[in-house]
Amino acid sequence: MEYLEEIARMLTLEIGTKNKGFTLIELIVVIFIMGIASSYIVLNSSIFYSIEKSDKSLESDLIFISEESIFLGSPILWHASLDQNKFYIIKNGLKHERKDLSERLSFSQLYSDNVTVIINTGDGNKYQLNDEITSFPLITFYPSGENSGARIEIRSKQLLTEINMKQNGEVFSAYE
Length: 176
Prior knowledge:
The structure is a single chain. The chain has 176 residues and is an alpha+beta fold. The chain is 39% helix and 26% strand. The strands form two sheets. Strands 5-4-7-8-9 form a five-stranded antiparallel sheet, with helices on one face. A four-stranded antiparallel sheet has the order 3-2-1-6. Strand 1 and strand 2 form a beta hairpin. The longest helix is centred in the first third of the chain and has 49 residues. The protein is elongated. About 3% of the residues have low confidence.
């Protein structure tokens, strides 16, 4: 019993000492610093999310074109520039333009105006896209789900993105 009374007396002594806590100014400074840190994190993560979203939509467009080739049972040829695309379907040995697919894969819409796009084709050639549509197909999508293969490098001021297309139809991105 005496032991409990001694503990109670010690606790009252400690509570009665100069235990002030935090001042209002200290609390405001801490909250201000936490606000700046959290806004920095949110802004940076949203920038990376928008970059990743662009790449994912480009990947999904490439997968869609591959699936369209499978569905139609015909090869699809992709001709491109920075601003526009042309897709041709080979039916009965003739090239037919598919204008409904041309809205896909526009690099100037997905990325900033100061983007550089270099496409390394499956046959080892390297092409930098400009304002003119290529006269030759950059990638051919086959009805088997395969393609001619390519590595697409998208360079902006802050980031290098690579979208790799394996000839078996697999598509994936890498960032630097």
